[in-house]
Amino acid sequence: MSVVVPCFNEEAVLPETHGRLVGVLEKVPELGFELIYVDDGSRDATLEVLRELQRSDARVRVIALSRNFGQQIAFTAGLAEASGDVAAILDADLQDPPEVLPEMLERWRCGADVAYGVRTQRDGESVFKRWTSKAFHKFNNRISEISIPLDTGEFRLMDQRVVNAFLNMPERHRFLRSMVAWSGFQQEPIYFRRPHRAAGQTKWSRSMMLQQAANGIFSFSLLPLRLAVWAGLIAIGLAFFGIGYALVAHLLTDAWVSGWTLLFIAILLLSGGQFMFIGIIGEYIGRIFNEVKQRPLYLVRERLGFPSPSPKEEPLQGPAAGSAPFNG
Ligand code: UDP
Ligand code: MG
After folding, report:
1. Which of 139, 146, 175, 267 is the most exposed place for a label (fewest CB within 10 A)?
2. Number of compact structural domains in the chain
């Protein structure tokens, strides 16, 4: 089993996280495991702490990214190096309790391809965060082709073939829970209570959360684009009424000039709508632009504790060469 843990400025919590993970996994009979910590460009002593852990425990692998790429990319970098038959991902701050892992493993041994954590209760998260998260998931499920289960984060265990499916999606704007849901296979929920962060502060700002919500929606739904068509049709329908009104007012009454208020409102509304939809189209074009550039998803500065050199560290090859999805 491979366990992937993204770490961004987590020096305060990592020794405890490692202790709890090892304690739990060693108790599972007949389980060999590796722990892959991904340092996502931390500015504190995270990397030194990880080096220290690696020196004292040969099951620890460390990947240091060249800068901060974000949690989603950190997961990807870790999974790309996971050699287990099964891989789990969890946050470094112990909000995804390692004690749930044996139950997830048991599900996998009984045939599930994905066992994902569902939070029955969320301690220490603000009302704002819980509310916006819920609203986002409901909205997302309504408009996307792929539904994601409510109260689910990234905490999950995946069979190797699901991991491979995930790694074969080269897209830049990554949203793991939707991408895994998209892959299908047999996915089962495991319920757990989400505790407080064990130490340190949240590494997700509000703008990062918004960005992530946008990834969830724009990468999995074309509905915002289709809205433009519907808004356009409604505007045309209203325009027919306007034409009728203008003709009647012009031909049959002498109150023609007084119609300017309506004209003013119509111009404001329609130009506002047009700007909005240009913005939505721009959002998709921006994403196309990002994909077309074909940059690598991330760069690795350092790898520690891996038994073999990374297959992904081969020199860049054209897409036809195939084998290295993350080097574009
Ligand atoms: N994280 C990361 N890169 C980032 C932000 C966060 O690797 O740019 C990691 C972080 O170290 C933690 C996980 O992602 O292991 C979840 O972050 P956090 O606990 O701060 O988010 P929250 O639980 O508050 O949503
Ligand atoms: Mg957290």
Report:
1. 267
2. 2
Residue list, ligand 1 pocket, CB within 6 Å: 6-8, 10, 40, 68, 70-71, 74, 91-93, 95, 197, 202-204
Give DSSP secondary structure letters for 208-250: HHHHHHHHHHHTT--HHHHHHHHHHHHHHHHHHHHHHHHHHHH
- On whether both 38 and 82 belong to a single domain, the answer is yes
The range of the structural domain enclosing residue 254 comes to 223-292
**What does pTM read for this prediction?**
0.77
Closest CA to 116 of 162, 164, 169: 162
The answer on 126 and 95 residing in a single domain is: yes
Task: Indicate which ligand has the atom closest to the C-alpha of 201.
Answer: 1
- What b/e readout covers 138-158, taking b as 16+ CB neighbours within 10 angstroms? eebeeebebebeebbbbbbbb
Instruction: For residue 308, report the distance from its CA to the centre of ligand 1, in Å.
Output: 28
Same domain assignment for residues 81 and 145: yes
Question: pLDDT tens digits for 107-134?
Answer: 999 999 999 999 888 887 788 888 888 8
Q: Are residues 272 and 309 in the same domain?
A: no
